[in-house]
Each structure stands twice: as C-alpha cells, then as structure tokens.
Amino acid sequence: MTIELRSQFSFDLVHEVLAGALDLAIVTEPQDSPLLSKVQIGESPFYIAVAKRDDLAALLLMARNGVTVRPLAETELRMKTYLASRADNESKVASELLRAFMRKLSDVNKYKQLPLPISV
Questions:
Q1: Which residue has the higher pLDDT, 66 or 24?
Q2: Which of 13, 24, 77, 104 lies at a C-alpha separation of 20 to 30 Å from 98?
Q3: C-alpha 54: how far from its chain's center?
C-alpha cells in the first residue's frame, strides 16, 4: 500500500479521484457527481482580518497588536470539508479506510466540545 500526500486545489483533486489516479481525497466543497462518493468531515467559518487603520476597525474590538481576526457570522459563508472517493472504487483498502473513518467520525460527533464564551 502506498500513501501519497498532495496539496492541490480541490477541483484538481476531485478530477484525479474521478479519473482513478487517487483513491481518496480530502477536499472542500466538491461538485455533485453520481460518480463521486463524499462524506462531510468538517465545517468552519471564513474569517476576516482587520488592521487598526481600516474603517471597519471602529466596529470591532481590536487586538493588542493592531490586527484582529473574527469569524464571519453568516452561515452560508462556511467552508465544508469532505472525504471523497469514486463511487465505483473497488479498492478494499480504500473502502475499509472510509468505513473506519466514518465509524470514528460518528464517535467523535457524540462528544462535541461546548463553546466557551471568552470576552476579549
């Protein structure tokens, strides 16, 4: 078994999965395709960074170093991450890895950490 780590655009990784060059890929927002099997493994908001000299800075509480980073509250502006494979992939190793990952993910989701409100 060979494990190869690549860093590419999600579109390129999905193309390689569909072409059979990769068995699995971790991608953000893959296109819908009947040939692609995907499961969501993560979701995170987009962030905005504002410098003290920016006009928007007056609206946000600034960090000590003059730059603040805040998540955008809009739920539509969230980045969803998926584990993707070909729907007709016959690799037993990839299939077993995907099943094991799904079992582990369902266990992790049972015990989500509660957010702790911290004032800045």
A1: 24
A2: 77
A3: 29
